């Protein structure tokens, strides 16, 4: 372990000190806001990020789905949808790594808006695989140990969660329209299960720790109305506040 005075440089990451909770923290980015856009599959997260990417002084990070579809020639996302019991751990281990990589990468602007988080990968998707009986207990235990080690030892600050709250039916329609090959077999029931986990986490707050205040935006509207909502909420989002 590094002592607080030691510095370890690992490319994009300079870990130099510990927080008051004893976690490794990055230096120099204390004043930068991190906003995570959360929501069901095809709820409109990427579209929302595209809209805000036109604002100056915001860095936008979309989910690294292309990596999940192609790691050294393999497609863990596709494999997971074909056989979740066999490949769920493979996909979720890789997603956890790539999300951690995004959280720890240097922020190039005063504010970062990113799609989902290491938290939703675990609290929504791993949880869903496990609860639906598609992830073996041992796989869930190993992923949970990894997640707990990461979140207990590394500071992963999030200032605001913007929850795009949409009905599973809307997401199902949009998902069919988007037509990602791997997702063609997703039934409405899958989106309903993901929706319920999101609601328990971010609205009822009865399942897992919520790492930041939550701003809820209803996302069933057409694109024009969504833009109006984004404008109505612009100030809150850009100041990292839900009030
Ligand atoms: N408000 C909206 N009304 C209609 N279609 C939308 C809306 N927002 C996004 N879409 C479309 O729905 C699909 C999923 O949107 P996307 O932004 O990729 O969702 P996510 O990133 O949450 O998975 C895309 O085809 C997108 O063009
Ligand atoms: C974070 C996360 C995502 N997935 C799957 C769900 C979707 O098929 C894609 C992400 O697409 P979206 O349109 O951005 O929602 O990846 C998963 O299976 N596990 C996860 O942890």
UniProtKB/TrEMBL annotation:
Residues annotated as binding ATP: 39-47, 174-178
Subcellular location: Mitochondrion
Occurrences of domain Deoxynucleoside kinase (ranges): 35-238
Database matches in CDD domains: dNK (cd01673)
Reaction equations catalysed: 2'-deoxyuridine + ATP = dUMP + ADP + H(+); 2'-deoxycytidine + ATP = dCMP + ADP + H(+); thymidine + ATP = dTMP + ADP + H(+)
Stretch forming the signal peptide: none
GO annotation, cellular component aspect: mitochondrion
Cross-referenced InterPro entries: DCK/DGK (IPR002624), Deoxyribonucleoside_kinase (IPR050566), DNK_dom (IPR031314), P-loop_NTPase (IPR027417)
Record-linked Gene3D superfamilies: P-loop containing nucleotide triphosphate hydrolases
EC nos: 2.7.1.21, 2.7.1.74
SUPFAM superfamilies: P-loop containing nucleoside triphosphate hydrolases
Keywords (A to Z) from UniProt: ATP-binding, DNA synthesis, Kinase, Mitochondrion, Nucleotide-binding, Transferase, Transit peptide
GO terms for biological process, alphabetical: carbohydrate derivative metabolic process; DNA biosynthetic process; nucleotide metabolic process
Alphabetized GO MF terms: ATP binding; deoxycytidine kinase activity; thymidine kinase activity
UniProt-annotated catalytic positions: 115 (proton acceptor)
Family membership noted in the UniProt record: Belongs to the DCK/DGK family.
Protein name, entry field: Thymidine kinase 2, mitochondrial
Protein's organism: Oncorhynchus tshawytscha (Chinook salmon)
């Amino acid at each position: 372990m590094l002592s607080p005075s030691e510095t370890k440089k690992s490319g994009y990451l300079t870990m130099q000190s510990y927080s008051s909770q004893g976690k490794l923290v990055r230096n120099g980015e204390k004043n930068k806001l991190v906003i995570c856009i959360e929501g069901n599959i095809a709820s409109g997260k990427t579209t929302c990020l595209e809209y805000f990417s036109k604002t100056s002084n915001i860095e936008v990070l979309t989910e690294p789905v292309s990596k999940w579809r192609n790691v050294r020639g393999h497609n863990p996302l596709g494999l997971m949808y074909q056989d979740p019991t066999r490949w769920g751990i493979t996909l979720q281990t890789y997603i956890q790594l790539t999300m951690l990589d995004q959280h720890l990468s240097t922020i190039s602007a005063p504010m970062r808006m990113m799609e989902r988080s290491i938290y939703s990968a675990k609290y929504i998707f791993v949880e869903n695989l496990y609860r639906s009986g598609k992830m073996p207990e041992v796989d869930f235990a190993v992923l949970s140990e990894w997640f707990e080690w990461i979140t207990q030892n590394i500071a992963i600050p999030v200032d605001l969660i913007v929850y795009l709250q949409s009905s599973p039916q809307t997401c199902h329609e949009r998902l069919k329209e988007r037509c990602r090959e791997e997702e063609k077999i997703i039934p409405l029931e899958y989106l309903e299960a993901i929706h319920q986990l999101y609601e328990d986490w971010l609205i009822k707050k009865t399942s897992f720790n919520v790492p930041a205040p939550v701003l809820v935006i209803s996302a069933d509207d057409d694109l024009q109305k969504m833009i109006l909502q984004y404008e109505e909420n612009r100030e809150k989002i850009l100041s990292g506040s839900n009030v």
